[in-house]
Amino acid sequence: MAVTLKQICEEAGVSKATVSRVLNNHPLVSKETREKVQEVIQRLKFTPNALARNLSLRRTDTIGVLFPWIFNGFFSTLLRGVDSAASELNYHVITSLSHDAGDENAMASRLLKERRIDGLILMAPSLPADQIEELKSIDVPLVVLQREIADPEVNSVSVDNFDGGLKATAHLIERGCRRILAIAGPQGSLDSDRREAGYREALKQADIAFDPDLLIRSNFNKETAFTSFENFRRRFAMPDAIFCFNDEIALGMLKYLKTIGVRVPEDVALIGFDGIEFTEFAELSTLTMPMQEMGRQAVRLLIKQIECKEKRTAEQLLLKGAVVERNSTRRRS
Amino acid sequence: MAVTLKQICEEAGVSKATVSRVLNNHPLVSKETREKVQEVIQRLKFTPNALARNLSLRRTDTIGVLFPWIFNGFFSTLLRGVDSAASELNYHVITSLSHDAGDENAMASRLLKERRIDGLILMAPSLPADQIEELKSIDVPLVVLQREIADPEVNSVSVDNFDGGLKATAHLIERGCRRILAIAGPQGSLDSDRREAGYREALKQADIAFDPDLLIRSNFNKETAFTSFENFRRRFAMPDAIFCFNDEIALGMLKYLKTIGVRVPEDVALIGFDGIEFTEFAELSTLTMPMQEMGRQAVRLLIKQIECKEKRTAEQLLLKGAVVERNSTRRRS
DNA sequence: TCCTTGCTTGGAACCGGTTACACTAGCATA
DNA sequence: TATGCTAGTGTAACCGGTTCCAAGCAAGGA
Questions:
Q1: Which of B280, B15, B174 is nearest to A278 (CA)?
Q2: CATH topology agreement for domains A5-48 and A60-159+291-319
Q3: Which of A20, A110, A182, A210 is the most buried (most CB within 10 A)?
Q4: Does domain B5-48 bear CATH number 3.40.190.290?
């Protein structure tokens, strides 16, 4: 059995209250008592039981991070940001991957209602609004990550999709491309819509008319992107450039274009969105999101909520990404 | 304030003990009582407080997973395996990344001694033996991941490095390569040594004499690998194939060879080790380790230890990897 | 000298569950 | 009818801390 506070107080000849005060650096303890107690603590190698402490204090110093099963490339970088910020602020991190889509709520509310965590960071790009509503109702600190949220009562940290769409497109335009094919996400995806708005804005700023034929859709994965793209090819000439709304699509396209003999960047420039690590190896230009920073900010926002109880208005952070230029958009010489 | 067990028992007109029995499906409760209590639980939306429960039961249903900061490609896949196995067995997962090397112990023992976790999965490829010794002394269930351990008292799950080295080399030999350069890890790395042994065994089986000049060393990263390789090039002719002892080196080499005009696989075949995801995009052949399965097995081993208290002899699982053939070792036609 | 004040300290309740043990009632057995 | 057993339930201690409140005690002021 581990050493407990009781053993310490018996050994030191003081009460539990006093030992507890020493542990928490309470000022109202005389110097001699404090030193005596500390000596015993050292000698018996006492570490207070966090469970008991948490039960008393009604807090766990732990935050939950809920990720979707799929979110591959981001995952580690984001979690890294979360973990580093959390550990700096002396919090622990419970991770949980939702296995089935729709699982999120059950897992989240279980963690929350069982009081295992003080707050939750939720990364669920496809979580429907009503589920968020439900989570909100549990009334525990919550930060939604990587999902621009309309609801002003929900704290969120997200990449500025509009700004990103604009920058990526502008980058292609600067390289001399004018017929820029956008492979967007599904209808109704807020992320996709905002990126599209940025894309259009960049065109407008360059006095290029928006051509609806040059915007095709996917489900943010390569398979659906391929189908759309082949459809496009049958009807139209190859564009100057392709702006894929995420890196998975872009990486898939890169490979695919090679197989059909289209050279990147000589025949067509290609840019992705997200900045997953693989893009570096693939020499793919992309708009990188500051994932680690997003993780850090999410933690900060969450802990701010946890530590000051009075209801504060929610914050919605929008972090800006940046274009990383690699071979796939190198200027044709 | 959340609903507590006390409120349930008052509302249902029974004692705490009875409510607790209902919650835990204890058989000694009459049907009527059980139903009445359950109805109240439903109606008041009661969820028992895990902290209180844990304190009483002296267990947390939580395992810790400690990763090094660097272990990129593996990270998500491994964690995925851990998470899925843990959640199937009704355990939670606390993750922690050690930020500074050497941090591991402090973090691990803090989690363990504070009784926040019931056991620990430690992934620390570079953890010195004496630190493991120290962790062992805390005497809490522990599984070491991805590190062949000499100590028979420590449970571990690891890839079979010998088998992997053998298979990767044999794969190259089958493709007709005979001068096979191995870019190994540092001296004294158990992983590297075992892979090397496999490499040598494969050569021996093919009646190829081992040539010490064809074994160069790195620190398992591209920078040191480059230095060694350039050194090698100045003195010797290009080999038939290169077996890189991890994928990071292999991916770096792939890029590097391209810049110096050496074609893969036409001029030289290239194979990596580990099976990180990027290898797929890079068309790099590699020996993939079953990362997800390793995570799952580690959890299983750990929970087996947690749940049967009598000291059992430690198990050391060695999972075998498999060669995934991609373009970088495609047979020259 | 007596009372007030402030610093230390201890007693005991509390956080929200689990469970060993005691107790009661009902029924079968002797 | 007395006895033993069992099923169902309640009492109270316990897990290991935190903290409110009261009390002891010495110093300072009236």
A1: B280
A2: no
A3: A182
A4: no
Protein residue with the closest CA to the C1' atom of nucleotide C12? A17
Give me the amino acid identity at B297. Q
Residues of chain A neighbouring B2 (CB-CB closer than 8 A) = 113, 115
Per-residue confidence band for A28, with pLDDT thresholds at 50, 70 and 90: confident
Length of chain A: 333
* A33 is near strand C: CB distance < 7 Å: yes
Q: Check CB contact of B282 with chain A, cutoff 8 Å.
A: yes
pLDDT at B77: 83
Instruction: Choose the mutation target among A1, A61, A77, A95 for the interface with B, i.e. most B CBs under 10 Å.
Output: A95
Query: CA angle B147-A93-A1, nearest 5°?
Result: 75
B107 CA → C17 C1’, Å = 28
Q: Does A116 touch chain B (CB under 8 A)?
A: yes
pLDDT of residue B124: 73
Parse chain B into domains and list their residue ranges: 5-48, 61-158+291-318, 161-289+323-329
A219-232 burial string, b = 16+ CB within 10 Å, else e? Answer: ebebebbbebbeeb
B94 — contact with chain A (CB < 8 Å)? yes
Cα within 13 Å of Cα(B112), Cβ side: 22
* C-alpha–C-alpha distance, residues A269 and A253, integer Å: 11
Alpha helices in B184-287 (DSSP H): 190-205, 222-235, 247-259, 278-282
Q: From the CA of B128, how many Å to the C1' of D10? A: 55
Is pLDDT above 60 for B250? Answer: yes
A278 interfacial to chain B (CB closer than 8 Å) = yes
CATH number for the domain running over A60-159+291-319: 3.40.50.2300
- Using the CA of B12, give the nucleotide whose C1' is nearest: D9
Third-level CATH fold of B161-289+323-329? Rossmann fold (3.40.50)
Q: Given this structure, which CATH class describes domain B61-158+291-318? A: alpha beta
Nucleotide nearest B9, CA–C1', reads D10
pLDDT at residue number B206? 97
Instruction: Tell me whether residue B231 is exposed, middle or buried, using C-beta atoms within 10 angstroms of its C-beta: 0 to 12, 13 to 18, 19 or more.
Output: exposed
Task: Give pLDDT tens digits for A195-248.
Answer: 999 999 999 999 999 999 999 999 998 899 999 999 999 999 999 999 999 999
Dist CA B153 CA A64 (whole Å): 33
A177 shares contact with chain B (CB less than 8 Å): no
Helices assigned H by DSSP within chain B: 5-12, 16-23, 31-44, 50-57, 72-88, 104-113, 129-138, 161-174, 190-205, 222-235, 247-259, 278-282, 291-307
- Kindly report the bases of strand C lying within 7 A of a protein C-beta atom: 7-20
Rg (CA), chain B: 26
Phi/psi at A193 (5° precision):
-60, -40
| Contact at CB, B51 and A48, closer than 8 angstroms | no
Q: Across the interface, which of A94, A99, A115 has its CB nearest the CB of B92?
A: A94
End-to-end CA separation in angstroms for chain A:
73
Q: How many helices (H) and strands (E) does chain B have?
A: 13, 12
Give yes or no for CB of A101 within 7 Å of strand C: no
* A248 part of contact set with chain B, CB < 8 Å: no
CA distance B19 to B25: 10
